Amino acid sequence: MKIQELYYFLNERIPESLSCEWDNDGLMCCPDGSREVHRVLIALDITAAIAERAINEGYDVILSHHPLIFRPLKALNDSDPVAKKTLRLLLSGVTAMSFHTRLDAVVGGVNDTLAAALGLLEVVPFAENGEEIGRIGELKDVMTLDDFAARVKSVTGAPYVQVADAGVPVRRVALLGGGGASDADAAKAAGADTYLTGELKHNQLTDAPENGMNLIAAGHFYTEDLVCRRLAELVAEADPKIEITVANSNAVRFI
Predict the structure, then answer these.
(1) Could you give the dihedral angle defined by the CA atoms of residues 108, 111, 112 and 116, in that order, rounded to the nearest 10 degrees?
(2) What is the b/e burial string over 83-103, where b = at least 16 CB atoms within 10 angstroms of the residue's CB?
(3) Which domain holds residue 125?
(4) How far is the C-alpha of 64 from the C-alpha of 100, rounded, in Å?
(5) At residue 130, does pLDDT exceed 80?
(6) pLDDT confidence of residue 132
(7) Mean pLDDT, range 26-47, rounded to an integer
(8) N or C terminus of the chain: which is more exposed, having fewer CB within 10 Å?
(9) pLDDT of residue 22
(10) CB half-sphere exposure, 221, CA atoms < 13 A
(11) Across the strands, what pairs with 216?
(12) 182 and 121 in a common domain
């Protein structure tokens, strides 16, 4: 399978029409779309370390959730970290493709993967500004907030989670992997008693008892990284002969 063919395959299953208007993703850099794909490196982020690994270990493609290029580049030189990575990949013949908010929204994407791992049932989208990225569903059995938070830690691998207790049991859970602070009100409007995301504002956490909805912030990376397994499944579906590696791109340590 050629690089361009792999991108077309993924683009059909994770359509660009699902992307938020402000987003930028897709075929981020592609030195040669006619090149055969033998090895794909999958990671949530294309960090400098991930880029160098792809170059040094002979990968043809890096496939990521977070875009390599999010804001427009004003120049291509080594003084800007994103431009430097892009140049390194292009000069080394490595393609980078990213699927961002459309992978959040698509059926089976970031948020469906997280919902399934947590055991949510009857999962449906919920929307903020018409963008149906988040998911809301029911637990089979009511849980205490502490027990559900422990499940979140276990499923995501997060070293800790922030929990704001509104004094209600956990049954109807809304979630949005990554930076979902702006969607908390939409989660409440959708009927959630508990909202899980990667990052929340301090005032949201402190106001949770008054607002009547439990809040859990489990980290941007940890609430999204599970989707890398799904990306690996899609690449294997496209061409079983492709060698696939899923890498941990987390550059943040907790001390």
Answers:
(1) 140
(2) bebbebbbeeebbbbbbbbbb
(3) 107-224
(4) 8
(5) no
(6) 85
(7) 97
(8) C
(9) 92
(10) 17
(11) 163, 196
(12) yes
Encode pLDDT of 75-110 as tens digits: 888 889 999 999 999 999 999 999 999 999 999 999
What letter represents residue 18's amino acid?
Answer: L
* Residues 203, 146 share a domain: yes
Cα–Cα nearest to 142, from 172, 174, 176: 172
Tell whether the torsion through CA atoms of 246, 247, 249 and 252 is positive or negative: positive
Judge if 211 and 236 occupy the same domain: no
Q: Is the dihedral of CA 180, 135, 165, 251 positive or negative?
A: negative
